[in-house]
Amino acid sequence: MPMYSYRGRNARGALIEGRVDANSMDTVAAQLMNTGITPIDITPQGSEAADVSRSVMDYLRSQPPTLEDLILFSRQMYTLMRAGVPMVKSLVGLVQSTRNQQLVEAQRDILANIESGRALASSLARHPEIFSTLFISMIRVGEESGRLDEAFLRVSEYLEREKETRERVKAALRYPVFVLIAIAVAICIINIWVIPAFAKLFASAGAKLPWQTRFLIGTSNFFVTWWPVMLAAIALAIGGLRYYIRTEQGRYNWDRIKLRIPIIGGIVHRATMSRFARSFSMALSSGVPIIQAMTVVSRSVDNEFVADHILNMRNGIERGESLTRTATVTTMFTPLVLQMLAVGEETGQVDEMLGEVADYYEREVDYDLKNLSSYIEPVLIIAIGVMVLILALGVFLPMWDLVRVYK
Q1: Which of 78, 251, 336, 384 has the CB geometry, 3.0–4.6 Å to 152, for a possible disulfide?
Q2: What is the pLDDT of residue 405?
Q3: CB 213 within 8 A of CB 395
C-alpha cells in the first residue's frame, strides 16, 4: 500500500503534518476529514524507481479518452441510473474504477459541479474536448424528460456503432496502405542502390541506352542528388497541409475533397450520411426540437461540408419548408432515402424513418468496406505491373545489347 505525506489544519487552525498508508489520495483526504483535519496538501511518497514508474503510468493514463472509455462510461451510468443509484454515488464509484486519467479528472469536476447544484448536462459541457455536442444534448434531454438512464443507453449505442464503423474502415484500408508503403520503399531502394549499379555497368560498356533506361537512370540520379531536399519538401508539405486543414476554410475544403476521392469518397459519404441519420433519429426520438436537433447533428457528423448542408436544411425548415424538400435541395440523399423521409413526414414518424435510413446507409457502408480490397487491388496490380515493366525494360534491354556486342 503506498505511503502519503500530508499537511492540514485541525479545528483550532493548527498545522498538522504526518504520513499515512492508503490506496489513493481520495482515501487519505477522507480519513483526515473523518478525524477533524482539513487537508491542505497530500503528496505520494516512495522510491525514485516507483516515482518514475508512476510518472510513466500517469503519462499513459493522461491520454485523451477513447471511444471505448466513453462507451464504458455511458454503459456504467446507464446501469447505475437504471438500478436507482444516486448520481453522486454513481460518479464517486466511476472515479475510482476509471482508468483514463483525463476522464477521471473530468468526472471529479463533474461531481463537484453536481454537488454544488449544477445540472449534469451543464457539467458535461465544461469538458467539450471529451464529450461531444450530441452527447451533451442527449443527456440534457434525458434530464429534462426524466429518462436519464435511457439517454445514456442511446448514447452508448451510438458510440458503439461509431466505433464499429471506424474499425471496419481501418480493417479495409490496412492492406492497401501496407501495399502502398511497400511500393514506396521498393522505389526508394531501387533508385538509390540498384539502378546506380547498373548505370555504372552500362557506362563502362559505352552502349547506346534505350529511353526506358535513360528514364530510370535520370530518376535515380535525381533521387540520389536531391533526396534531402525531397524529404524536406515532403515534411513541409505535410506540415503545411495539416496547418491548412486546421483552419476553418481548409477543413471545409478538405472535407469536400474527401467526398470526391474515387472509390473512397463514396464510402465516406455514405458513412457520414449514416452518422447524420442515426444521430438525427436519436435526437428526435428523445424529444429534441427539430431545429435544435439539426444544429446539434451538424456538429456531430465530423464533416464541415456536410454540416454546412445540414445547416442549410435547418434554415429551410425555419422558413416553413418541409424536411423532404430541404433534403432534396442538398443533393446528398438518394431517391430511396428521400422517399422514406417523405413517408416519415406524412405519418409523423420521421425519427423511425431516419432510423431506417441509417440502417440502409450502414448496410451500404458494410458492403462497400467488405469489397473495398477488391476495388483497390486492380489499381494496385496495374501500378505494380507498370513499375515492373519499366524496370524490366530499362534494365534488360541494354543488357541484351551488351550480350550481342560481346558475341
Answers
A1: 78
A2: 54
A3: yes
Q: Strand 3-9: give its sheet, edge to edge.
A: 15-21, 3-9, 38-45
Q: Over pLDDT 90: what percentage of the chain?
A: 16
Give the number of domains in the chain: 3
The arithmetic mean of pLDDT across residues 375-396, rounded, is 82
The per-residue pLDDT for 401 is 65
One-letter identity of residue 320? G
219 occurs within a structural domain: no
Amino acid (1-letter code) at residue 83: A
Copy the grid coordinates of residue 298: 451538424
- If one compares 172 and 251, the residue with the highest pLDDT of the two is 251
C-beta contacts of 3-7 below 8 A and 24+ residues apart: 3/44, 3/45, 3/46, 4/28, 4/42, 4/43, 4/44, 4/45, 5/42, 5/43, 5/45, 6/32, 6/39, 6/40, 6/41, 6/42, 6/43, 7/39, 7/40, 7/41
Judgement on whether residues 100 and 142 belong to the same structural domain of the protein? yes
List C-alpha distances in Å: 238 to 234, 241, 253: 6, 5, 16
The pLDDT tens digits of the residues spanning 367-380 come to: 888 787 777 888 88
Nearest to 273 by CA among 338, 321, 197, 317: 338
State the pLDDT confidence band at 46, using cuts at 50, 70 and 90.
Answer: low
Mean pLDDT of 262-290: 83
| Phi, psi for 14 (deg, rounded to 5) | -75, 145
- Rounded mean pLDDT of the chain? 82
Cα 228 to Cα 323: distance, rounded to the nearest angstrom: 55
Cell 429518462 identifies what position? 147
List the grid coordinates of 197: 549499379
Section 14-35 average pLDDT: 77
Residue 3's beta-bridge partner residues?
21, 45
Report the CATH number at residue 148: 1.20.81.30
| SS3 per-residue string spanning 245-274 | HHCHHHHHHHHHHHCCCCCHHHHHHHHHHH
